[in-house]
Amino acid sequence: MFHFPRSLLKGAAFAISLWACAGYCQSSNDAEIERYSQEGQKALAEARYPDAERAFEKLRSLEPDVPEIYANLGLIYFQEKKFEQAVSTLRHALKVKPALPKLDTLLAMSLSELGEYQEALPGLEKGFHRSPDPAIKRMCGLQLERAYTWLHENGKAVEIALDLDRLYPNDPEVLYHNAKIFGNSAFLSVQKLAKIAPNSVWRHEAAGEAYESQGSNVQAIDQYQRVIAIDPNRPGVHYRLGRTWLARSRDDSSTDDRKQAMKEFEKELELDSSNANAAYELGDMYRSSGQLNEAKDAFELALKSHPDFEEAHLGLASVLMSLRQPALALPHVQKAIALNHDDAVSWYRLARAEKALGHTAEAEKADAEFQRLRGNSSEHIAAPAIFSPDQVTKQEVDPNSSQ
Description:
Elements: H1 11-14, H2 30-45, H3 49-62, H4 67-79, H5 83-96, H6 103-113, H7 117-130, H8 134-150, H9 154-167, H10 172-196, H11 201-213, H12 217-230, H13 237-252, H14 255-271, H15 276-288, H16 292-305, H17 310-322, H18 326-339, H19 344-356, H20 360-375
Helix pairs in contact: 2-3, 3-4, 4-5, 4-6, 5-6, 6-7, 6-8, 7-8, 8-9, 8-10, 9-10, 11-12, 12-13, 13-14, 14-15, 15-16, 15-17, 16-17, 17-18, 17-19, 18-19, 19-20
């Protein structure tokens, strides 16, 4: 089970107007009531919750029968994470005046924070599906993800995550929690697969991908080989096996592991010549070992079936530069930049190609962009530990080469 951090509500979104108190406040304490009312509302609007709490508790002692006072106190307690007090106070307000707006939603969120998910569900669902307020809808959605997950209703949690992704596509908190929901769903699916079909190719392939993503190369190789033993011509598995051998070769610099990787990529291409990833990896291995003509053929094969393959364009450009053919390399680098303007490697290779062609101004401009991108590179965020079919070895800058 994973943790959902608590978020504060904007007080303005939930605060209940106290001007309705005017009809109740017919006593010698009118001036005092008015003072605490103004102080409490101002403190609540400014998110000074301890001050707001003191003012509204004074109001409650002066006017114990006004439901709006309890409603605002419930909001204040929620913001202060005093969820038990929030629940009892909000229940009292709703008992006295059920029509108070938004309180059923706030009560549901308070119950959810206390782990009372079953009781919270109706209010959370109402807030998410019916509220016209985007802030309330968003918070109810995040709370629903947690509630459904804890209640083992994982399908419903995924449905909410998909809705949140559509409604708030650029919200960092939503994206963070959705990643956990989708990851949890994938994990549960793999668990179920292992239970119902423990010896199937599907189970072994899923296990291989999981081990590969964790860097457990020995176990991944074993699982992929089990798949091949069952179905030698299964598409994509020789490629994954080749990638794992290649990763292992980087760990121990084993020539034998690299040879195994090449054999698997070649086998994949025998089965499926349109597997651009396998062709690309084979081309990159040929390039790094100085087999430039073989590398050129492999990169061109990758681009034949996948003409928008950025890394293959860069790999082919590097080979053509090494073959002293900068005029042929130039359009491939330009294509890579058109596909991904912010890749520093592309600008580096463009600068080298322009320089080789004698285009001094263009080379300086490309080099300046390379330096800018390299200097402004943001902190690297590791990819999640899940299998990605598009994952390939990335091209890198090698200042000591003519690439």
